Amino acid sequence: MKWARTTAIVFLLAVSAACLLANVIAPSSYAHQFREEPNASPSRQHLLGTDDLGRDRFSRLLYGTRVSLLLAPAAGLLTSLLAAFVGGIAGFAGGWVERCVMAGTDLFLSLPWLFLLITVRALLPLNVSPIVSVLITFAMLGCLGWAGAARIICADAGALAQSDFILLARASGSAGFRLLWRHLLPNLKPVLYAQFWISVPVFILTEANLGILGLGVAEPLPSWGSLLRELEGFSTASAQPWQLVPLILFILVVSSFHLVLTKEELPV
Amino acid sequence: MAHRRTRPGPKYLEWPAEGIETLSALPKLAGKILITVLIGGFLGATLVRLAPGFGVDEEDLDSRLSAQSIQALRAKEAREPNLLAFYFRYLNRLLHGDLGISRTLQRPVLQLVAERLPETLKSVVLGLALGWSAGFFLAVAIVMSRAWYLDLLGSLLVGILLCLPAAVLALLFVLAQAPARLLLGLVVFPKIFRYSRNLLARSSALPHVLTARAKGLGNMRVLVWHILPMAAPQLLALLGVTVSVAFTAAIPMEALCDIPGIGQLAWKAALGRDVALLVNLTMIVTLVTLVANSASDLLGRTFRVSEA
């Protein structure tokens, strides 16, 4: 399956490059309304037509993909760092520290994810700008997604703390933070890497769920959630298959993220 | 074969060890659930009390209201300054079966939950039954037949389903005018399939299974007597996890397919910033999830002990 992994990485790089160059590639701004052309069919000017407000769908797709592709990995990084911090310290310290931290993690894991997210989202101020709303959404995902990864990292850190090379390092006088930083954390890198890649598609999917429910990124800033929400207006009778392009791209990107990890790196 | 542990004493008083272990685990699990709910409730109350939006309402922005009215509204929201007192008052009301009044719907939360929970439970049970039977039987078929085309087909289907958010599935169900309650089955199915297939494949590669096959045992006997008992505890543990997955997916399903369950209620509460209702709903779903997790954990443990 090496070819599938390589294809997925190349595809993700291509999509990321296209999104980063959105300012150059996109024919117009994501918020610009062509008032004379609402719900227009694809044309040379509007490759994917326009939405009901006359905004260019292709531009919105590029900018929306950029939002999700930049911020989901950022949220994944935040989650991985939090998990490394919490799980690493718990596993390294062991004893009552580990028990307390794991009890907290269990509590966190027993809370239903989407219920928790919409509760926290509902607590946040209403009058925020679209940019702040997008940052809040992904920061919230990053801050609330650490528990599962922390458990795995804690188990690995606990096993590593008992290993021969750590005992040797301890015997050589290495202790505390130095031991954690120089010996333990570098050996946790593969687990952290796997957790990071697992969390990215999860966050993309969750943002899409929140966006479709109207609890994600605020308009007019596009994200995959708001782009997929347009499917509400999709009708088989009117036959506008280009409306399905965001969904197809979404499936391709999320499946590419799934393919990036090798079978050995994936949990059962 | 492990030694079968029994309580010492006269033979007629002997109790099966697995029964004792299951019974002794019950109070511990109940205590764990209670502590989790209490801490979760406290965190929920803290969230409500310390949230930046607490005490601020859409009504505050209503330009028709006078300064005195807005002051009165704010004073009403900020009645309880002490967090612990706020929590104990909340707990006290909870013990008396009072979950408060929904601010947006102006109805008692308990009444709303009593009306809507059966709808969600119906969807969850149907979804779990569908997802489990489809996922598990497809995994068994693939592992036992070792047909590559079936594996490829299953993997492709699961790959696509795993890439679709539950909300998109709900929209597609609305467009196709398909029965919405089946949606939860599609959300649960890929998780069951992937996990069961990997687990069954791993169990079927164990030396004793290979020996059983080499001795000429039929597929069904190998599955029932040698593969399933090895995989059963972990599969049972997955049952609890899928309950949580199904409840989570119930929000987009009910919101978009217009099913009056607690998922839809939570969505409406989120849109109306009815945090108190949301916290109560989250606590109820947490409780259901915890009970399901503990039950599946207990089942798995009993199975493991009786297997030993």
What does this 3D model show about the protein?
The complex is a heterodimer of chains A (268) and B (308). By secondary structure, chain A is mainly α. Chain A is built from eleven helices and no strands. Chain A has helices at 2-20, 22-25, 57-93, 95-110, 113-123, 130-144, 146-161, 164-171, 176-212, 224-229, 245-260. In chain A, α1 packs across α11 and α3 (57-93) packs parallel to α6. The model of chain A has no long low-confidence stretch (mean pLDDT 85). With 308 residues, chain B is mainly α. Chain B has eleven helices and no strands. The model of chain B is unreliable at 1-15 (pLDDT under 50). At the A-B interface, α4, α5, α9 and α11 of A face α1, α5, α6, α7 and α9 of B.
Furnish the topology, listing elements before pairings.
The complex is a heterodimer of chains A (268) and B (308).
Chain A lengths: L1 H19 L1 H4 L31 H37 L1 H16 L2 H11 L6 H15 L1 H16 L2 H8 L4 H37 L11 H6 L15 H16 L8
Helix pairs in contact in A: 1-3, 1-11, 3-4, 3-6, 3-7, 3-9, 4-7, 5-6, 7-9, 9-11
Chain B lengths: L16 H34 L16 H11 L5 H13 L13 H37 L2 H15 L3 H11 L6 H22 L2 H8 L4 H39 L4 H10 L3 H33 L1
